[in-house]
Amino acid sequence: MSHRNAAVACAAAAAAAGALLLAPSQAAAGPATGPAAVGAAGTLATSAAPPGLLSALQRDLGISPAQARQRLVNEAEAGAAAARLRQRLAGAYAGAWVDGADSATLTVATTRAADAGAIAAAGARARVVPHTLAELDRTKAALDRAAVRNSTTDAPVWYVDVRTNAVVIRAAEVSAAQALLRASGAERSHVRIVHATERPRALYDLRGGDAYYMGGGGRCSVGFPVTRGTQQGFATAGHCGRAGTSTSGYNQVAQGSFQASSFPGRDMAWVATGSGWTATPYVKGAGGANVQVTGSVQQPVGASICRSGSTTGWHCGTIQQHNTSVTYPEGTITGVTRTTVCAEPGDSGGSYISGSQAQGVTSGGSGDCRSGGTTFHQPINPLLQAYGLTLKTTTGPEDPGDPGDPPGGTWTVGTVYTAGDQVTYGGAAYRCLQGHQAQPGWEPPNVPALWQRA
Fold first, then answer.
1. Annotated catalytic, 322?
2. pTM
């Protein structure tokens, strides 16, 4: 079932474009340029991308070395430009995405034809569509609520697809998708049903991507090393263990235990490690090389993303949709991000990273790394916020150059900010443009990619 509004002022929407896998027990116009754009790329440290990450992008996306480097720059700039336009368009905003081998084209959707000039002036393409992002989010939320009361294993994945301006339900049985839609009471004109054969399952299975073993059996992967006060540990998937589950490391040495876990509903957890384990600001990249983590700025739809896991190692793809819901046999997970990166059993909990920006921990998917597949990750910022964790980064508070306390403001290092949050710093007010966990050096006046003077 699809809906297409013939009265759309611009060209028609472009064609549209889980599972938890537990490893067995075992021992056109480009983004805006100028100072703000340079600041965005600099803030996200795109020039520091290691060779292994660039090589994986070339291999998995079929692009050249120059395109891989430029893609990271363009994606940083596009994210900042889209965030500023989202603030300007307010209630008419309908999403944004990047296209092209080097992500040179940023498209921003709006429900007002009058916004096209402002979008073009920001270096983006305008797409006029019938439904706002807020409307589609409400429709998806209705489906999420209905899934609590209804089985959705035959219609396991649904998400807001900004490219097609619709909420898409991917279903092995179309009748199951129709039943979920009826039960939700959602606006039918907002929803498109797609027949799909995927049957997501859980990816069950202190550097991101390294293996760890659960006391009750099975293997998963470290997501991102974190701290909570002086306690060190790591973020991972909730389906890998419950609070109290003991863990051992990749070397089978006693490691720690799960402190908190959520699954289903969300797929998030964190493990506190013993004194013999030290959290590092790295993810295991291609060939075992360290990929540095400098922050947690969420990247836009269409952006490149790479995953590290203890079964299949380092693989890359692109972000397909944020705010996705997926039903595994164990239940429905909401708020995950859908990607084209492959994964297999044991990769669960592992790291998703764009450039040097942490994105999330592996939840589940379908397919494999031989024939390709679709995977989902639990975004990292909600996880950090839920458990009061601080992401371990190469610009952490203990590093030289820590600027200390902000001068008389409410902005603080380690706080997770979402788009629209307001803070004060140095006597001025600022509005957050992109969700992230605050890092030293990312004070609001210094990072126009993340903060706008209110």
1. no
2. 0.82
